[in-house]
UniProtKB/TrEMBL annotation:
The gene is TRAF3IP1. The lineage of its organism: Eukaryota, Metazoa, Chordata, Craniata, Vertebrata. Residues 13-72 form a coiled coil. PANTHER family: TRAF3-INTERACTING PROTEIN 1. InterPro entries: TRAF3IP1, TRAF3IP1_C. It comes from Characodon lateralis. This is TRAF3-interacting protein 1.
Length: 100
């Protein structure tokens, strides 16, 4: 009985080694493919960075232009407020002088 049971067990042991070898080969294939994809990803990232760099520079320039225009707008608003104050003082002065 033991002999009859040990024969299939021996064959299974033979197949286990073949399965382990096949799994090792498959693992190596997956590792190789992973490395290839990692390198391709790195190359694409570098290409993307090179393509985006001029756009980043343009964006920085546009942001600076926006800030400059906002500063000019603030300066004009300040002048408008000062002129309104002057006009108000002049109107008040005219009203005061016409009453006397």
């Amino acid at each position: 009985m033991v002999c009859r049971s040990s024969l299939p067990l021996g064959k299974i042991m033979d197949y286990i080694q073949e399965d382990v070898d096949a799994m090792q080969a498959e693992l190596q294939g997956w590792r190789r493919e992973n490395k290839e994809h990692a390198q391709a990803l790195l190359q694409e990232q570098r290409a993307t960075d090179r393509a985006v760099e001029p756009l980043k520079a343009e964006l920085a320039e546009l942001e600076q232009l926006i800030k400059d225009h906002q500063d000019k707008i603030c300066a004009v608003k300040s002048n408008i407020l000062k002129n309104e104050e002057k006009i108000q003082k002049m109107v008040t002065g005219i009203n005061f002088s016409s009453r006397t």
